[in-house]
Amino acid sequence: VQLVESGGGSVQAGGALRLSCVASEGIMDTYCMGWFRQYPGKGREGVSAMDIDGQVSHVDSVKGRFTISRDNDKNTLYLQMNILKPEDTAMYYCAASSKYGNCREVRTYDYWGQGTQVTVS
């Protein structure tokens, strides 16, 4: 499965962005799909994830601001980010997992996109 993210960019604090992740194959059979972010010099942090049953989880810092969703017909995962803050500035990655696991953990995922930069000033 190949994943291609888009939608990153620069925005002022309080603004919004929507990230998209298009998969090369059907995502209906993936157990987890999620968004991660990485700050310079740090490891990847789980931001939002959705499992095969549609259960959603978010890191506390984005609850109430970010929404994860997917369109199985378009093989696309989305991350709607509202009320953006400077601390949301990071490289954002889309990921998919074909196996059971904790959808918030990096080690669960076996497919990753190339990342898209989000900068909030």
Descriptive overview:
The chain is mainly beta. Helix content is 0%, strand content 49%. It has strands at residues 3-6, 9-11, 17-23, 32-38, 44-51, 56-58, 66-71, 76-81, 90-97, 111-112, 116-120. Strands 2, 4, 5, 6, 9, 10 and 11 form a seven-stranded mixed beta sheet that branches. The termini are far apart. The model has no long low-confidence stretch (mean pLDDT 94).
Class based on secondary structure composition and strand pairing: mainly beta
Mean pLDDT: 94
Give the termini distance in whole angstroms.
34 Å
Q: What is the global morphology?
A: globular
Poorly predicted ranges? none
The number of distinct helices, counting runs of at least 4 residues, comes to: 0
Question: What is the oligomer described by this structure?
Answer: single chain
> Secondary-structure element order, as H and E?
EEEEEEEEEEE
Helix percent reads under 10%
β content, as a range? over 45%
What kind of sheet is the major sheet? Answer: 7 strands, mixed
Number of E-state strands:
11
Task: Evaluate the radius of gyration.
Answer: 13 Å
Layout of strands and helices, then pairs:
Blueprint: E1 3-6, E2 9-11, E3 17-23, E4 32-38, E5 44-51, E6 56-58, E7 66-71, E8 76-81, E9 90-97, E10 111-112, E11 116-120
Parallel strand pairs: 2-11
Antiparallel strand pairs: 1-3, 3-8, 4-5, 4-9, 5-6, 7-8, 9-10, 9-11
Any descriptors?
single chain, 121 residues, mainly beta, four-stranded antiparallel beta sheet, 49% strand, globular
